[in-house]
Amino acid sequence: MSDVPDGWADELRASREEKDAFFDEHRQSPIPPEERDDFEGLDYFDPDPTYRVTATVTVADAPEPVEMETSDGRTVRYRRVVTFDFEIDGAAYELAGYRQDADDAIFVPFRDKTTGQQTYSGGRYMELEPDETLADGDEVVLDFNLAYSPFCAYSETFSCPLPPEANWLDTTIEAGEREY
C-alpha cells in the first residue's frame, strides 16, 4: 500500500460523481440514449487504500509490439513499454503498461478474479500519465480505485482492447468500477 494523501477518498468520490454526470448528460456518453432516463450512476467498490499500491518500474529496452484482441473480434497494436511490480496483501504481482504513440498515457488493461463476476467480463483499465520519463527502479502509484470499465461495457457500438493474458491477475481486486 502506498501513502494515502489527505482527502484522497473525497477526491475519488468527487471524480466518480463527475463521471456519473458525464455519462448521464453528455452527448458522447457511452450509455445508449434510450437508457439514460433510467441511469442513476455507475456502481463502484468503496474506496479502499489497500488497492492503492506502490509499484516498481522496469522499462522495456525495446518496446515489444503486442496485438490485443478487441471486444468486436479485431486486433489493435500496442507496444509493451513498462512493467510494474507490486504487492497486494503480501503477494507479488506484475502488470505490463502499453502505449500506441510515444506521447500517450500508459495504458494498463487487466483482469482479476472479479472479472465477469463483479466487474465487466472484458476486464478493466487504468491509465498513468507520469510527469516525467520513467526509468528502471522508479516507483509509481497504481491506484486500482481508479480502475474503470471500457466503453464497450455499456454499448456494443464500441470496440475495446481486451487485456492480454500477461495482465491477468490471480487475485481479487475489489476496487474501482463494478459491472454496469
Automatic annotation (TrEMBL):
Residues 35-45 have a biased composition (Acidic residues). Residues 10-28 have a biased composition (Basic and acidic residues). Coiled coil: none annotated. Gene3D superfamilies: 6.10.250.1680. It holds the Pfam family DUF1684. Residues 1-45 are annotated as: Disordered. This is DUF1684 domain-containing protein. The lineage of its organism: Archaea, Methanobacteriati, Methanobacteriota, Stenosarchaea group, Halobacteria.
